[in-house]
């Protein structure tokens, strides 16, 4: 099964509609590849949890893919409270499989 790689572009935004941080040296779809346990939502509040693929690495960290959970973090949108259930998006054409 192929799973889309998460990156810093709009095509990979989290289910909470936030962009994610990523590598400054490794890219997919013109965005830095996001890594589990390192990269955050763009507001620097929600860490991408260490789950998912453990066979593909970027800068010695597991690559984040579609559906990785993001830790609970404060909402930066018009809604109040925390995003308790957020997941990473993924590329439609850069896959790990």
Question: Characteristics of this structure?
Answer:
97 residues; mainly beta; two-stranded antiparallel ribbon
Describe this protein's structure:
This protein has no helices and ten strands. The protein is mostly beta strands. The strands form five sheets. A two-stranded antiparallel ribbon has the order 1-10. A two-stranded antiparallel sheet has the order 2-3. Strands 4-5 form a two-stranded antiparallel sheet. A hairpin with a 7-residue loop joins strand 7 (73-74) and strand 8. The protein is globular and about 30 Å long. The relative contact order is 0.31. The mean pLDDT is 84.
Write the layout of secondary structure elements.
Elements: E1 3-4, E2 27-28, E3 31-32, E4 57-58, E5 61-62, E6 69-70, E7 73-74, E8 82-83, E9 86-87, E10 95-96
Antiparallel strand pairs: 1-10, 2-3, 4-5, 6-9, 7-8
User: Mind describing the biggest β-sheet?
Assistant: 2 strands, antiparallel
The gyration radius over C-alpha positions equals 12 Å
Task: Determine the structural class based on helices, strands and strand pairing.
Answer: mainly beta
The strands making up the biggest β-sheet line up spatially as 1-10
Mean pLDDT: 84
Q: Which percent range fits the helix content?
A: under 10%
The secondary-structure element order is EEEEEEEEEE
Global geometry: globular
Distance between the termini: 5 Å
Return residue spans where pLDDT drops below 50 for at least 5 consecutive residues: none
Task: Please state roughly what percent of the residues sit in beta strands, choosing from under 5%, 5-15%, 15-25%, 25-35%, 35-45% or over 45%.
Answer: 15-25%
- Please tally the helical runs, counting DSSP H or I stretches of 4 or more residues: 0
What's the number of extended β-strand segments?
10
């Amino acid at each position: 099964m192929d799973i889309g790689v998460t990156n810093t572009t709009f095509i990979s935004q989290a289910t909470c509609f936030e962009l994610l941080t990523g590598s400054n040296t490794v890219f997919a779809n013109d965005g830095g590849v996001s890594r589990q346990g390192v990269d955050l939502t763009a507001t620097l509040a929600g860490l991408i949890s260490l789950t998912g693929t453990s066979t593909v690495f970027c800068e010695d960290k597991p690559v984040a893919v579609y559906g990785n959970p993001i830790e609970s973090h404060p909402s930066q949108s018009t809604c109040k409270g925390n995003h308790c259930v957020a997941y990473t998006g993924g590329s439609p054409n850069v896959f790990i499989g």
